[in-house]
Structures are given as C-alpha cells and as structure tokens.
Amino acid sequence: MKFHTAHESGYVSCHACGHVQPHVEPDAAQARQHAHERCERCRSPMHARHPDSVARTWALLIAAALLYIPANLLPVMHTASLVGDEDDTIMSGVVYFWTSGDWPLAVIVFIASILVPMLKLSVLALLAFTAQRRSTWRPVERTKLYRIVEFIGRWSMLDIFVVTLTVALVRFQSLAVITAGPGAIAFGSVVILTMIASMQFDPRLIWDPVDEDKHKPAQLTQDHPHE
C-alpha cells in the first residue's frame, strides 16, 4: 500500500490550530515582501516546514553545550555558616550523598542533573546532523528518539528541582545561609535551551529524504521507459 503525505498532495497544516488547507505558493510581489500564506481559521503564518529549523536547533544546542560546562564546574550553591564558607557543585553533591550512604538520592541527582541533559544534547545533535545531511538512516528509530526527548522535555524542570534539593540538603548546617551560585544559573539555562531546541527541530525533516528516495525509482521509470 502506497501512502501519500499531505505535503506531497499539496496541503499544509497550521502549527497553531492544526487546520489543514491547500498550499498556495506566494506570487512575485508577496515573495518580495516576505509575505506568508495565512491560516484560513486562525490567520497564523503557514509553513510547510519550520523555517530554518536545523540552523536554529544547532544555535540553541551550541549555546546549551557551552553552558553545560560551567553548569557542572561552577558551584551551584554557596554555604556561609559559623564554621566558614563552602561552595558545592552538582558532582560534589552526588559524591556527598554517595559517601554518606544516601545512594538512591545520589543516583537521582546524577541521572537528572548530569546524565539526562547530556543525553538530550547528544540526541538532538544527532537528529540535527542527520537532518542536515538528509540522511535516510533509521528514520523510525530517529523519530522515536525525538519523541523521547520531547517527552523528557516536559519534565525538564525536575532537573531544577534536583538542584534546589541539592542546595537544601548538601552539607546543610544550622545557622547557615545558603545562596544559589553561578552554576545554578548556567544549569537552568541549559535546561531551557534544550527545551527550546527540541521545539525548534522539525521531525518531518527526518522523513523528507526517505520520501524522496521512494519516488526516485518511479521517476526514473518514467524518464527511461522500457522499450
């Protein structure tokens, strides 16, 4: 059974309300004015694919990757008490929980604050790279990876909660004043940037090269019919 996509049939869907309508190419005057086709229902601009999806995803990923380094190296909290001042990073909190016997909490902090952001960066970089190269490699698996990243993105604020929990529990002493450090700001920025990057990436770009390859044999047969 042969399937046809809405894009192949000349239709486009609205990203705001989901309305599907025939795609109308802008004329020369509209192209010069950069005018976009409007949704017939909500009047939002219509796009067959997210504009500059790969470029925007790469820009957000690079910014998140650069901030991921200080997020793990800089202290996420500063503790001032009667016995002195102390700075703690995310990894020092993991080590403290592990050595003090709270290994379940150490595993949760490690997964939510270190492993998950790193995996999100790696998966989104893989998706952006393969989409940019118009690769046909394992499109179903890549789509599932995107859905996983998109699902995790809804719970990304759990990472911020874990950092807050770390601030409250790591080496907490009486009569102490705890303030957030620059690492917490960098970590929160990484979470927000990865969430926006997953929203900017258009998963339909995964399937465009696959659909083009499916039509190539038919086109070659039409161009060179058997005699």
Q: List unreliable stretches of 5+ residues.
A: none
Main β-sheet, spatial strand arrangement: 4-3-5
- Strand content is 5-15%
Give me the strand/helix succession.
Answer: EEHHEEHHHHEHH
Structural domain count? 2
Q: How many helical stretches?
A: 8
Distance between the termini: 27 Å
Tally the beta strands.
5
Task: Estimate the mean pLDDT confidence.
Answer: 82
Measured as a percent range, the helix fraction is: 55-70%
What summary fits the major beta sheet? 3 strands, antiparallel
Shape annotation: elongated
* Cα radius of gyration in angstroms: 24 Å
Helix-strand makeup class: mainly alpha
Question: What does this 3D model show about the protein?
Answer:
- The protein has 227 residues and is mostly helical.
- The chain has two domains: 1-48, no CATH class; 52-223, no CATH class.
- It has eight helices and five strands.
- The strands form two sheets. A three-stranded antiparallel sheet has the order 4-3-5. It has a two-stranded antiparallel ribbon with strand order 1-2.
- The longest helix is centred in the middle third of the chain and has 30 residues, at 103-132.
- The two termini are 27 Å apart.
- The mean pLDDT is 82.
